[in-house]
Amino acid sequence: MNTNSIVTIARTVELSEILTDGGFKHNHVIDIRRCEEGRARPVEEEVLKRLRNHFISYDQMAMDLNDVGPCEEVHLCEMLQEYEGNTLLVADDVPQVAKLCNIYNIPFESKVFYVVETGKGDVIKPYDQPQVQASSAAKFGVFG
Q1: Suppose 96 and one of 65, 88, 114, 141 were both cysteines; which one would form an S-S bond, judging by CB atoms 3.0 to 4.6 Å apart?
Q2: Can you tell me whether residue 115 is helix, strand or coil?
Q3: What's phi and psi for 7, nearest 5 deg?
Q4: SS3 state at 40
Q5: How far is CA 54 from the centre of its chain?
Q6: What is the DSSP letter of 132?
């Protein structure tokens, strides 16, 4: 993984986040959300236009991380590791993505709540203070 790379996990991409003043810190967006039929979830055209206008790459890979094969999992992790800068990973199941990042030693932060099982009780990571999970950091058990 590139040393200056980090993954930010979110549940959505808001049009208001992609500002012209450089407030959107992501260079790439990977959207793995799925609709009920199992296909990629439709993205608002205005969001895509604004991403393209700011030269931010956007990829869609509809995935259910609870029912995905190892090839798709490895492909997603390779994509995350090859990008330089900050990649926004948009997913429905944040704990599952966080678990995957831990398995593949991919540093990440989260823009949403997620629960970490510690064996001594659950720890909730807050939205307003994203936690960076470094590859050398101790693992706290299973995300669930």
Answers
A1: 65
A2: strand
A3: -110, 135
A4: strand
A5: 20
A6: P
